[in-house]
Amino acid sequence: MDIALGPLIPLFSITYVVAINISIALCIRLDCVRNKVWVALAGVISAGLAVLSSFGLLLLCGVPFSMPVASAPFLILGIGVDDMFIMISCWQRTGVHDKVEDRMAETYKEAAVSITITSLTNVVAFYIGLATPFRSVQSFCMYTGTAILFCYIYNITFFGACLALNGQREISNRHWLTFRMVDNEAETPNEGKKSNGYSVGGAYDPDTGAEEEMPINVFFKEYYGPFLTNTWTKVFVVFLYLGYLAGSIYGCFQMEEGIQLKNLAPDDSYVASYYDNEARYFSYYGPFVMLVIKDENFQYWEKSARENLNMCLKEFETSDMVAKNMTISWLDSYEQYGAVTGLNISDQNVFMTNLTRFLNVSDFYMDVNISGGKILASRLFIPSINITTATDEKNMLNFFRDTASTCEKNMDLLVYHPAFIYFDQYAVIVSNTIQNILAATAVMLVISLLLIPHPICSLWVTFAIASVIVGVAGFMALWDVNLDSISMINLVICIGFSVDFSAHISYAFVSSSEKIRNGKAIDALYSLGYPIIQGAVSTIAGVVVLSAAKSYIFRTFFKIMFLVILFGAVHGLVFIPVFLTFFGVFGISSCVEDNKPSMTDVDTSVSSSDDCKKPSMTDVDTSVSSTDECKKPSMTDVDFSVSSSDDCNILNITPF
């Protein structure tokens, strides 16, 4: 564990400093009361507490700590501050004059479901990774999944409490730094005072009663949203997505399996330079594979037994991957030794009596295990050649094992090389990766169906997961990242992260009170566009320092995380909003508690005074007897509105 964490400690410190500063910078307000500096700091601390709690618990329980686990804290930091931004965004839309309890209730009403969806899907995605046969992947998934669970708990408890305390400060109009009461800007509008960050603060929007809109929220509502929902923009987005999909699929076909052994060591390690020199000068030769004879009853001194062994060796040499007549065999050397010295090694007593002396003078003593005058096991070495790619390594491994199993009818054999532990993954890496992705995606769909109140949007969330995974897999291949146990871990991460942004936008879309699709998309972007940008920027900031790591593992982690966040944010801010306007829900969503009358309520929805006549569908074109303030409705009125005096209620029937 010390070896794994040692090089990362400076990077870990830099990451947290960068993340804290970026999180604070994204939460700074010019208003000295509405400033969210302390809240941002609490969000980062919450993520740190989640890492400490989860790692401490699992280490106490004896769960192994593998090298890839050292990258988990960077991931948790990104997830934690992402949830923090969502909660802050919901808090800012609550009434500033409401009680803190009511503001917290409204914040949790809006944010809790969205955060629960993303946290639950992330946790499930990582726990599904426990089904993989790779121990390092199991360890990473256990630590990261548990850390995300703790992160969720701390966000809705510790961070929520800090948000409430900050709300108490705001409601008493105290300065964010000095905590001294300052003048309320809203109470002296005629003096033209503006918040200067020191003496005046507490501004809010008098129309909504909430905090003043951030400029970037106005940008999403007034500029970006209408631009994105423009017909020609939608056409461009569709072609852009097709280009993205084509590039992703092309990259998937270019993907290679396997990991170079030198990548398991730091760049400045002696091991890395050794493998570089080996590839430069001895690339023709591959591993010297050990052939172990495990049969204690094998009669080495019998000529027929030796012939069977030689026939087996010839079977190995029939392959183009095995060098001819280059097998390193102590038994062949012993036969030559017997011929030179005149020993009859076909006699058991002669064979065993002279074997120890031969082994000592020939340096083969490490290749034969003798105990109690009996050979328990021995080994030979078969040189491989023309092994240059991961596919060659996989084929060589399968050939040696198949050939050894064929020879086992005459003797008990085992083929082994220390690199086989890495070659073994090639046989199952593709199937396991596909299995984990499909299983996790199916679980994501179930969770989305349970927590997102419209099945169509749940399907779009699942679509976003699949789309981001295909994109990450394709472009990581184009970025020189192979499919191995390291990238498999990161693809599991991809499953969890790909759901975050799309789930936030989809839930905001179906929760919007707007009646038309374009309006819902604009409202969703207005509500969550900025938090998505905040989360993406903070998460990338949390892993960007890993690009400077001297380890392939952590550079790969950075590359895939960068692709995941980039493609996830693009899906959440561009693709999904546009696609929802094509195929999303239409009309009033089931999750919105809307008491506005429908077309069938027109005869009962207008409560009028004696001066106002209740209209019906049969007389909408006729005049309505009313006071001077009552307007005659007609079929050309979009809202079919009956405006009234103080005694007349307003009827709004907006067509879907």
Q: Gist?
A:
With 656 residues, the protein is mainly alpha-helical.
SSE arrangement:
Layout: H1 2-5, H2 8-27, H3 37-60, H4 72-92, H5 100-128, H6 135-171, E1 183-184, E2 200-201, H7 215-228, H8 231-253, H9 270-281, E3 285-293, H10 303-317, H11 330-341, H12 348-362, E4 368-371, E5 374-385, H13 390-407, E6 413-416, H14 420-451, H15 455-478, H16 485-511, H17 517-543, H18 552-583
Parallel strand pairs: 1-2
Antiparallel strand pairs: 3-5, 3-6, 4-5
Helix pairs in contact: 2-3, 2-4, 2-17, 3-4, 3-6, 4-5, 4-6, 4-17, 5-6, 5-14, 5-16, 6-16, 7-17, 8-15, 10-13, 13-14, 14-15, 14-16, 15-16, 15-18, 16-17, 16-18, 17-18
Salient structural properties:
two-stranded parallel sheet; 656 residues; mainly alpha
Oligomer: single chain
Taken in chain order, the helices and strands follow as HHHHHHEEHHHEHHHEEHEHHHHH
Q: What spatial order of strands do you see in the largest sheet? A: 4-5-3-6
Helix content range: 55-70%
Number of helices: 18
Backbone CA Rg: 35 Å
**Which residues form runs of ≥5 with pLDDT under 50?**
190-197, 586-656
How many runs of DSSP E, i.e. beta strands?
6
Average pLDDT number:
79
Shape: elongated
